[in-house]
Amino acid sequence: MRISVCYKWLLCPAQYVATDTKSTVEAHALNTSSGTLVSEIERTCQENELVIFTWSPVHLCAKLSEVYWKPGRPFVGALTFWEDTLRYLYLPRLKNRSVLEQAIVSGAATRHFFGTAYGEHDGVYTGFQLGNAYVQLDDTLLLIEPAAAAAYEERQKTQKTQDKDDDGGPGGDGPVGDGPGGDKGDKDGNDKKGKKGDDPQKSYTFIGTVDVNAATAKMRLTQIAEDVISLLASDPHAAVRVTVEINAEFPAGASDLIQRTVSENAASLGFKNRVWE
């Protein structure tokens, strides 16, 4: 009897829920008469969802809700979930990390599946977003239960409104003067023009410096532009200047290809300094 007829079963261990104490083995027949054995195994795995090639954020959200999101801890590290899929049978087997990344990007683009952040401390999320697809899968990315994310977003909005009121913004208790526009006028009823330094409680300059991980630079720079630079520039009287400094060290020396390509790209982007040492 031919070997291909005898050995035609694909045996796959399975565990349907995390609380199962024992795993089972599923047997799937292979069509050994067509194509190579490797391609047939891949086809069988894909058709029976033994290995997932494309995943929906609906299923990712459901699995996170079932296993990870708990009262008091409504978030989980994205890479924690990925590493667990490589370890535990009750979790889906994804073909590669890109499958998870695509599901996260698709889910993050809506407000229905999860919020995202890049750290959590005492209930405060760093880089919190809800309904924004600009995310990057790294060891800091958190996936937040949607109801908890919506509640956190609402608290943020409330806090910002209170801060505006405290600072004398619209509807707040800002200083009210005797002259027109709320500024105290002089004895002749003319307005006094405030000068820099007149109010010791005001700040007149902001200088910010931040280290950006090269692996997450694309996402982090977009965040900085949206959450900081755009707010500074929203004041029509503000003069905002942004300088980007890049420092790269190569212990073994940079290759000619990297030097040439980076120099050309830096020149086309208008870098003032593009020096190799």
Summarize this structure as a short list of keywords or feature phrases.
277 residues; alpha+beta; 3-stranded antiparallel beta sheet; two-stranded antiparallel sheet; 8 helices; 35% helix; flat
Number of strands: 7
Strand-pairing-aware structural class: alpha+beta
Number of helices: 8
The main sheet orders its strands as 3-7-4
- Overall, the morphology is flat
Helical amount: 25-40%
Strand percentage: 5-15%
Q: Sheet bearing the most strands, described? A: 3 strands, antiparallel
User: For the CA atoms, what is the radius of gyration?
Assistant: 28 Å
Distance between the termini: 70 Å
Mean pLDDT equals 82
Q: Low-confidence runs (pLDDT<50, min 5 residues)? A: 174-187
**SSE string, helix = H, strand = E?**
HEEHHEHHEEEEHHH
